[in-house]
Every structure is written in structure tokens, then in C-alpha cells.
Design goal:
The chain has an 8-stranded mixed sheet, with no helix packed on it. It contains 8 helices and 37 strands. By secondary structure, the protein is mostly beta strands. The chain starts with 42 loop residues before the first strand and ends with a strand. It folds into 3 domains: 240 residues, Immunoglobulin-like (Sandwich); 169 residues, C8orf32 fold; 209 residues, Jelly Rolls (Sandwich). It comes from Sphingobacterium athyrii. This is DUF3857 domain-containing protein. InterPro entries: Papain-like_cys_pep_sf.
Length: 658
């Protein structure tokens, strides 16, 4: 939910202050030459400029934010063609469009036979997509794109959200030679300004005063002009195991704190305390108003619960009831979309409908239950300096049973009681009490996500490995597996797909246990036949000790990672192979036994093979004993994976005895 602000002020806006922008269309042949930042880059920003200023729109007399944007990008290869696609958002409320786009110019330049040729974007090639009830997307693609093209785009938007002003993101997934933004803020406006990210500004001209720039509330008023510049900015590269990129990209964020009205001497404050937020949420009909509807559950609870049930049993029964009663409609939100009464009637709702219904039902059973608002991993980390409600996009339930607080999300059929999906494990949320001040609540999980592979079999003379494979999953691994299986029309279809994905392995007589008992270990069992590598006329057999899920991919590739590795869970992968081999064979070559560990055993890899008579046993495990690794630990993790991959490339070789 975005904040709406209408101010009845009189401004005089002077557009001549937009004077530090670079000239449109001034392209030189030297712009087509590569720079040191171009190395391995699909495209590069040569120049980027933006400027934002508060003004009053003559058309509807609303106070708005005028934002001007201008960018010059060189496309280096075909992978960079995607940078010629633009989507400019226009936020709205229902049929009322709040933001407006105009003065769009877009040109493609190509260097051909020593001449710079230009191709302009036609107005009819700009399309407006009704993305949702709250958002339109203005979409266009630059014409005549080739490898080596330079594209130039400039436009102006009139926006109505003054609360967060205009975030300026210096860092993107391609490098930038120069990025500059200017903010022009009336003296009567106070914003909290935060610079995030690892890179420093070139310069920052604070307090440059524009004398008598605005006519505000009956008097001429000064403005502050803030200039922020950053040069030679590396590309931000996303890797596995990270939360939202906006937590780590270098960017300037603004939040409106207050406005002073000179004519009355009144100061209106917009930055809230958490006490203000608590009151606002509890008075909001789509949040606190839903928690008052305990009567909706009284009849159901009288038949669902037994007088002899413990508090924990009651909570489990109510949790299972809500999961079955309301299906998630795939929309997030901390507020109820339909309201819990309609959600129960229609048996569908958003996250707010489902989990506020859960809190209300738990309270109806006289259990201590409260909502926790949070920001999902892809949405970013909530501001810790001051409360910003728009930072939160999700709500879960918390029930306190004899001093133990259980975090609950009833939107996912396959989530056990007390577990959260990975998207919710984002540092901390805010628990909203009804009779006392809210407080931060840790969302970290102590749960260990585990998967065990056990293969017991025989290697026969014909070069076939036959046996029984058991895969046991629990925690997040079981959740992901159950969700994956649910995508298939039947278990047979899932097993067929699994068999197709392993061309050298035949799986038969498949069985599965506890598919729907989500608090139990998920067990899969298969009869397996594997053709071992045996060259014609050779006396040598060779096979990989990791029959399934061999690690061949290193998720850590970049040279320097500037953000932590956040796996969300502790985890353990373990495999055990017990093979009976023909008596006429000797094990002549096998991977060395290894034991690798990070400091304080934060991560550990073990591998061991042993031969007793004609019984070959292979034991392996990979454990991550904490969910988050710091930037300083990144190289060690990268090296650990590299060594595991090298070690798992080696086969076990058997040779006929002489």
C-alpha cells in the first residue's frame, strides 16, 4: 500500500533549474569505443541523469513530484539487446491514474561506414499495459538494435507520491560510467535521506541554496539543491542465496519526515513512531478490524476442539482447519483483500485474508495469538531507523504457548506447524500486539533442512548396478519436494519424469510415504538399475560414487561478492552407498577420502570409501551449519564448492583380479 498526500499549497515552479542535464542527441564516434568497464559487459551506461523537484500541477492543482530521466546506453552484444526494452510504471488507484508520463524521446544510433545513423522511436510503438488495479506499465522497445548500437532515452514523469520522493538507483546489472541525480526540496520540507550500498559518492553538494525559488503558502521560499554523483560503477551481479537486490545496490532513498507551513507556523509530521503505526494498523478495518471477528469461528471451534485438548493441540487443529478452508489466491499483502468473512465463504483469499483469519481463530479459542508483519526476501529489508509501513508486504500469525512462540503461515498446504517458507525468512518482522507496543521479532529459522540418499545394491558381472534407492527429505527440502510433486497430475507422471531426467538409470517399483503428512519425513523408494561404464573387451569397470545429485555446479562465480550468502536454513545432505561387488574384481582407483571444513565448522564436507571383503561402502555429507555467511566468508565457500566438484568428478574403478 502506497501513501497518498494532498497538500493545499501554492508553488511557483521554475523549470530552468533542469540545467545540468546532458544535451540530447550529442553523440560522438568516440562513444562507440570500449572502456575498461566494458570487459564482459553485455551493455554499459555511458551517462545517466535524473532530477526530481516538488511542484504544483496547473491541471488538477495537486502537489506532485516532477522527475526527469535521461540515459545513454551502448549495447555490446546480443545479450545486451534486452536493455533496449523499457517499462515505465504509472501508479494509479482504480481508474484514477496518479502518475503521468510525457516528453518521451528515444533514439537508436548506429555507426556505419564512419557515419552515425539515427532511428527514432515512433509514438505508436509505445504501449500501455494495465498490469494491475494499482499499476500501468508504459512499454516500448528501441528500434534497429544491433551489436554496438547506442540508445538514448529521456522522459518526464509527474508523480504524486511525495512520501518516498524518488529513489535513485546508482547500480544496475550493467556497469555505468557516470550516474548523477539532483533533488530540489523546498526549505519547508524535511526528508530523511539514506545512501545504501557499498560504493561511495564522487561528491555531494549539500546545502546549495536556490534563493526564493518557490512561492509557498503566501511567501517566497528557498529550496535546497542536493547533487549526488557516482562514477565507474561496477555491475551488480545476482547470485544464488541472496535476499532482495535492493538491499545491496548502491542507491539514494528518501522519506518525508515533515512539512512546515509558514503562514500558520504549523508543522505537520509524516514520519511515524511505532506507537503511531500500531494504532493505525489496529484501527484499519482490513487489519485490526478483522481481528475483532472472533464470532465467525465460535460455532466451528465448538465442534473442532475437544475440552481435553492441550493448547498446542488446539493450535494445530485450528492451523490445519484454516489451511484447508482458505486457498491462497497467489496475492501477497499484510491487509485482508476480501475480508476473512468473504474469504471463508469463497474459500480463497490473499495472504492477509488467510493469516489474519488464523490469528482471529486462535484468539477465538482463547489462545495468545498476534499478527507479525514482515517483508519478503524479494521485497527488501524493512527500514530499521524509522517505521515505514510500505516496507512490509506480508503477514503471518504468532501463537504463544507456554512461553514458546510459534510462527505460522497457513497459506501453504505443505508447511508443517511452526515452519515458515523461505520467502518469509528475511531477518525480522514486527509483532503487533493488541494491548501493548509492537516489537521486532526474529524470523531466523533454527530448522535444519535435510536430505538423505541411501543406495544398497549389487554390482554384477554384466556391468550393471542393481539395488534399492531411498531418498528421505525433511524441513525445507521436504517442502520443496512436496510442492514439486504437486505440479504433476499423478505420482506416476512424476516418477516417469524423474526416470527421464536420469538417462543412464532405470527407476522401477516407486513408492512414497508421508506425502500428505507434512510433519513427517518424506520417504521415496525405488528399485534402481544403473549401467556401469564398461568398455567392450576391457576388464575395467568404472562408475561415479554419487549415483544421483552429483555436485557439478558452483553457485559462487563472481570475484568479489559485496553482499552476504543467505541460505535461509541450515542444511545437510548425506548419502550412503553399500555395494556388493563381484569377487573377481579389485578396487584399483577411487577418490581420496577427504574432510573439508570452514572455520568453526560453519560448513563441512566429508567423503570416505572403504572396502571390506567384497563390500564397498561410500559415505558422503555436506553440511551448512548456519543460514547466513558473511562477505568475508564468501571466498572460502566458493573454494569449498570448487574442491567438492573436483573430487566428485573422480570415478571408482574396478579391475579383474589377475
Amino acid at each position: 500500500m502506497r501513501h497518498f498526500l494532498t497538500l493545499f499549497l501554492i508553488f511557483y515552479f521554475c523549470p530552468t533549474i533542469f540545467g545540468q542535464n546532458f544535451d540530447f542527441g550529442r553523440i560522438s564516434i568516440s562513444d562507440f569505443s570500449p572502456t575498461p568497464l566494458d570487459s564482459n559487459a553485455d551493455a554499459i551506461v555511458l551517462k545517466e541523469f535524473g532530477q526530481s523537484a516538488v511542484f504544483v500541477d496547473d491541471y488538477d492543482h495537486r502537489v506532485k513530484l516532477m522527475h526527469e530521466y535521461h540515459v545513454l546506453i551502448r549495447i555490446n552484444n546480443k545479450e545486451g539487446f534486452k536493455k533496449a526494452n523499457f517499462e515505465i510504471p504509472s501508479y494509479k488507484r482504480g481508474s484514477y491514474i496518479r502518475d503521468h508520463l510525457d516528453e518521451l524521446k528515444a533514439v537508436t544510433y548506429n555507426l556505419e561506414n564512419g557515419q552515425i545513423n539515427r532511428t527514432e522511436l515512433e509514438n505508436k510503438k509505445v504501449f500501455k499495459e494495465n498490469y494491475s488495479a494499482y499499476l500501468d506499465l508504459n512499454k516500448f522497445t528501441l528500434p534497429n538494435i544491433k551489436e554496438g548500437s547506442i540508445i538514448e532515452v529521456s522522459y518526464r514523469t509527474l508523480e504524486q507520491d511525495l512520501f518516498n520522493f524518488k529513489t535513485w538507483v546508482f547500480q544496475d546489472d550493467i556497469p555505468k560510467l557516470k550516474s548523477q541525480c539532483i533533488a530540489i526540496i523546498p526549505a519547508s520540507f524535511t526528508y530523511n535521506v539514506v545512501l545504501r550500498g557499498p560504493y561511495k559518492l564522487d561528491d555531494q553538494k549539500k546545502g546549495e541554496v536556490l534563493k526564493e525559488y518557490l512561492f509557498l503558502d503566501g511567501i517566497r521560499m528557498d529550496c535546497s539543491k542536493l547533487t549526488y554523483t557516482m562514477s565507474n560503477i561496477p555491475a551488480f551481479i545476482e547470485e544464488d542465496f541472496m535476499t532482495s537486490p535492493k538491499n545491496f545496490k548502491s542507491a539514494i532513498y528518501y522519506e518525508l519526515e515533515s512539512i512546515f507551513y509558514p503562514s500558520t507556523g504549523v508543522k505537520k509530521t509524516f514520519s511515524k513512531t511505532w506507537k503511531d503505526v500500531d494504532t493505525e494498523l489496529m484501527n484499519e478495518k482490513t487489519f485490526g478490524g478483522q481481528l475483532k471477528k472472533t464470532d465467525l469461528f465460535k460455532t466451528t471451534l465448538s465442534t473442532l476442539l475437544s475440552p481435553n485438548d492441550s493448547k498446542l493441540v488446539k493450535a494445530n487443529k485450528i492451523y490445519d482447519y484454516i489451511k484447508k478452508q482458505i486457498k491462497w489466491n497467489n496475492y501477497l499483502g499484510k491487509y485482508a483483500e476480501s475480508g476473512i468473512e468473504k474469504a471463508l465463504e469463497k474459500r480463497t483469499g490473499n495472504i492477509g485474508d488467510i493469516n489474519l483469519a488464523l490469528v482471529t481463530a486462535l484468539q477465538a479459542a482463547d489462545l495468545d495469538a498476534y499478527p507479525i508483519i514482515l517483508s519478503t526476501r524479494r521485497n527488501g529489508t524493512p527500514n530499521s531507523l524509522f517505521p515505514v509501513l510500505s516496507d512490509f508486504d506480508y503477514v503471518i500469525a504468532c501463537v504463544d504457548i507456554d512461553g514458546t512462540k510459534y510462527k505460522l503461515d497457513a497459506s501453504n498446504t505443505y508447511l508443517p506447524f511452526g515452519s515458515l517458507p523461505l520467502q518469509c525468512l528475511n531477518e525480522r518482522g514486527r509483532i503487533i500486539y493488541s494491548k501493548k507496543s509492537s516489537d521486532w521479532f526474529p524470523l531466523a529459522s533454527e530448522e535444519i533442512s535435510e536430505q538423505y540418499y541411501t543406495l544398497i545394491g549389487v554390482l554384477n558381472d554384466q556391468g550393471q548396478l542393481k539395488g534399492t534407492l531411498t531418498i528421505s527429505s525433511q524441513g525445507n527440502k521436504a517442502l520443496l519436494k512436496r510442492q514439486h510433486i504437486a505440479k504433476f497430475n499423478s505420482l506416476e507422471e512424476y516418477w516417469e519424469k524423474l526416470d527421464e531426467e536420469m538417462p543412464n538409470v532405470s527407476l522401477t517399483n516407486a513408492k512414497i510415504e508421508h506425502l500428505n503428512e507434512v510433519d513427517q519425513v518424506l520417504n521415496e523408494t525405488f528399485d534402481i538399475t544403473l549401467d556401469v561404464n564398461k568398455q567392450e573387451g576391457s576388464t575395467i569397470l568404472s562408475f561415479a560414487p554419487n549415483v544421483i545429485d552429483r555436485i557439478s555446479y558452483n553457485p559462487f562465480k563472481i570475484q568479489d561478492r559485496t553482499y552476504p550468502v543467505d541460505m535461509g536454513f541450515k542444511s545437510k545432505l548425506q548419502y550412503t552407498i553399500q555395494l556388493e561387488i563381484p569377487e573377481q574384481y579389485d578396487v584399483t582407483d577411487k577418490p581420496q577420502n577427504v574432510s573439508l571444513a570452514l572455520p568453526e565448522s560453519a560448513a563441512r564436507y566429508k567423503y570416505m570409501t572403504q572396502l571390506n571383503d567384497n563390500k564397498l561402502e561410500v559415505l558422503g555429507s555436506l553440511s551448512f551449519n548456519k543460514p547466513i555467511f558473511t562477505v568475508d566468508e564468501y571466498f572460502s565457500l566458493k573454494e569449498l564448492y570448487s574442491r567438492i566438484i573436483q573430487q566428485q568428478k573422480l570415478d571408482i574403478r574396478l579391475t579383474t583380479k589377475k
